Amino acid sequence: MKKKRLLYGILWCLLLPGALWGQNPKREFRAAWIATVSNLDWPSSRNLTVAQQKESLIHILDSLKALNLNAVLFQVRTECDALYRSNLEPWSYYLTGEQGKAPEDPNYDPLSFATEEAHKRGIELHAWLNPYRAAANTAGYAMDESHVTNQHPEWILEFPGIKKKILNPGLPEVETYITSVVRDIVSRYDIDGIHFDDYFYPYPNSSKGFNGISNEDADTYATYGQGFDNIGDWRRENINRLMRSVYQAIKSEKAYVKFGVSPFGIWKNGVPEGIIGMNAYSVIYADALTWLTDEAVDYLTPQLYWVIGGNQDYNKLLPWWSEKAKVANRHLYAGHSLYNVQPQMAPLEDVFLKELTHPAWLTDAQMPGEIFPLQSFDEIPNQIEINRNHRNNNALGSVFFRTGNIMSDPSGMIHHLKNNQYSTVALPPVMPWLGGGLPEVPNNLQYGQLAGSERYALQWDAPGAGEYRYVLYQFTSENPTPEEREIAANILALTGETHSFGANTPPGQTVWYGVSTIDRYGRESALSELLQVATPEAPVLLAPLADEPALAKEFTFEWQAAPGASYYHLQVAEDANFQQLIFENARLEATEASGSPLNLDGNRTYFWRVRAGNIAGLGTYSEVRSFTTGFPAVPVITSPTQKEEFVSLTPEFTWQASEGATTYHLQLSKGGSIFSEDKIIVEVENITELSYVLNTPLDKWYTHYLRISAVNAKGRSAWTVPVQFKTTTDIPEAPTFVSPEHQAIDLPLSLKVEWNTVDFSTGYEFQLASSELFDEQDVLVDEKNLTWNDAFWQVSNLEYHTTYYARVRSKYVGGVAGWSETLRFTTEEKDDIPTGIEDDPTCECTVQIAPNPAREQVKLSFWQAGSGPVRVSLINAMGKTIDLPLDKRLSGGKHELYLETEHLHQGVYWLRFETLQGAIAKRLLVIH
Fold first, then answer.
1. With contact defined as beta carbons under 8 Å apart, do 572 and 627 qualify?
2. What is the CATH number of the domain that holds 696?
3. Do 285 and 239 form a contact (C-beta atoms < 8 A)?
């Protein structure tokens, strides 16, 4: 394990992001799949309104733009359906909850809306289609009557074991049908590309006993398979023929529209050497190399969802694919998975392999034998660097599955990319074989106020008719070199609009701005004339007025718009030098700001100032103005005190006067760990005194929170810090000892100390000590867990002729009450038993005498095993028998005898019980 950790540590150091990696490229394809099947990414529900769908899609595009992605693969055909207006296929179930049902807005077209919004942000949109799948789950929802499975059931191959249907790739009619769908989209929508995923012939599913297609298309092969020696070659050619047909249809409509496919990441098992995995060539009959050779695609995006190293080594697969793309003069954009990325601090030794659902469709079955490992946090950044190391072999970008994982970013890896590999803007790579010339240069670059807006921005004129995107640059020299234009860090924005708000100039720098055009082929024009922008002048303050007294609680900071300003920086402080700032907002777009949310103190003077900013930076500050708040200061609560307990159930709340206050506002909440407005039980306004007494008693032993604010015509103060207090409860009295008597002497060494039970008590605490001070070192017994019924403590192992002290107190819901009066008692002296009256240990009898000590009478209780003579003798301390209370034959069992003691002298006596079985002597103390 130590060796493994050392190896991981070395690899981590070698692959550190940031400074150890090269500069980000200016041209790089950065895209994400937006999956609509099963509502994976968008729309999030089939029940969203059109407005909600639009809002959600805009949020997605804004998030991808913020990550500096420049393309989306937007799924518009999941299973021979349409997320766009189509006369060929029905509306998608995933859009409206019912296949064939149109959105409620007749003017709404999701593909048109998505394309327009993507282009505004400078993002390419590739329409993503699944070419053959007709039903992802035949046990799912009902297909519309217009669906191809109902219109042309003869075109369908069905696989009941996995509950799927696909269009039969071997039918010429199917090829024509799919091509017509693609042509329809390209001709009617302003898209940038068409994208096919990896579903051709069906994947195997070991969990359902499905090993792939077998003889389902045997009849079609018999009809159309002439010239092919085996069915596998015929199946591959069916797909190859579709690729050529689709490519030709796209280019005949719009030559600049790109066509790409994302095949399974392994072409053949063992290719390249050392790779182990499913054979896409002979299992799903996808021959991606032929598509390259036939020039039937513009790019491939193999789904390389594995890690660096192992049997599906990314560092072997990516170079192999890119080499094939280079030979064919086509682009390679690697497909990466995001759903299996671990958090940054996960231990590398915890990385493990497990079978996951095939990434392109979570509703599809697992692929037998294919494993997608959990990735360490730095896996994707490292893979991007591998891609960049093979740029010369046309490895020119990445596509991420899927958008939902980008948005949630549970591992934090997307945030890492934004700050490292994707910290700069990138333009999509140019595909030279598509043609196109250099576009014209944008005109009239200037910095001014946008029409219909108060905001200022960099603006320019489009160079002519047509769809363009624009690249906005920021240079630190007035005459940038061609090399400086190739530095990605000099690009401020890639946009589809003729304006940009740019970014703030770093402090202390002087910059020049320029803009260029990107045409539909991705080619870039020359640079416009450069523009330098001046910082705006200081704003003129309007309100509050200078030195304004008695400012109301509700007020607004106002200032005049400064020419050339796109935002403002407001500061409020307690001092004129602004060393004690209490509020600052550096990105205000309006020329006003409410003072209400600042929670200013009442009856206090503050200072404020404003400066204006734009992309050139911040200008100078305005004059400094002061104002004094006219509403009262926060009062001070004097009773109860913070965390006070045993507060009266009808307390009197008191507070100090707040200067300028005319009334006070009181709120009291009950329960919880903090003041809560939803737990307010008392609220009183317009209190004119400095105290308030509750009329209704509070509940016993509850935590409450009190807060007060002061009010006058200018407004109210902030609330006091809530004072926490606890109401009182029923406190039990101290218990009274019952036995033994106070100052009792000559007590036995083992005895029971008893006391009376007490109302409201939940239990007791008992202490026995050798000193009446109950110092810690003198306490012999300290019992804290006695219940209400345990009103006693059995004391044992006491010392002879020793004085002890006991006390007890009641426990209750709020704590413990006071201690009882101290009980004092003394144990007996150790007396020698007179000779001849010792106990006989063989005696089968028991004897008890009570009370002991005795004054007038003592009761003798005894028991013997069998019948026989019994003699009871009373013996004095000298050993002389002075009385014979009993001398007779008794039956076995229990007997009682009363002995008068009032005539005896005070002192120690012995009672000796003799039977046939033996004898017992009991000590008796007589007191008067």
1. no
2. 2.60.40.10
3. yes
